[in-house]
Design a protein that fits this description.
The chain is α/β, with parallel strands linked by helices. It has a single domain, classed as Metallo-beta-lactamase, Chain A (4-Layer Sandwich). The protein has a 7-stranded mixed β-sheet, with no helix packed on it. A 6-stranded mixed β-sheet has the order 7-8-9-10-11-12, with helices on one face. It is globular. Bound molecules: zinc ion. Zinc ion binds next to loops.
Amino acid sequence: MKVTYIGHSGFLLDVEDAYFLFDYYEGEIPCLNTEKPLFIFVSHKHGDHYNPVIFELLQKYPKTQFILSKDVPVKWKIEEYISRGIALEKHITVMRKWEEKDIVLSENRKINIKTFRSTDMGVAYLLSYKGKCYYHAGDLNLWLWAGETKHYNDNMRVNYFKELEKLRGLEIEAAFVPLDPRQEEDAFAGIASFMEYTKTKHIFPMHFWNRYEIIRKFLEKYPEEKERVIQIEKQGQVFEWN
Ligand SMILES: [Zn+2]
């Protein structure tokens, strides 16, 4: 198992016989094995989670499939590709909130994909592949803000925990979860609850706007989580385990 931190919420997960690329918008994608299928997930259309440049990867890696949240505008891209003689639409799966789909790779290989409703826009993804689960939150987070009304923050809590409840007790091999320093004193609440609710082995904080020190600060407050919270230090950093 190998995870490369691309940048912000962008990660490349290498699971031996497939790649999963999440929320790419900038940074360097390492050279990939063209024989291995590549699954590119987009949680929503915001500029820090989606860059249409991802579709160009299809040229280099013909075994690419795109899994896109419903809000991602893709019609114009499909039309552009038709004029280039490429059937992009055959490589796209669109997901709405609270959906479940299987992508079949071969007779006994499939990826099961479940979505959750983000508390911002789009979806979070839970994948099951070969007996292991992987989770990418997108912008599903406990977005509490000191400057917001009580009503807003209360509503946020209700919606966040409604989704988290569906993940309760789940064994997750690797999870990618927001830890956003802009939330100041409320920044830890979402990821801390996620850790409490799930049995995640490797938690990768994300969406921290290059402010890596927030991971260190988080672990100062929760030293018992050092084993499973990954201390990301730079773009392109690689994490491997068995
Ligand atoms: Zn975002």
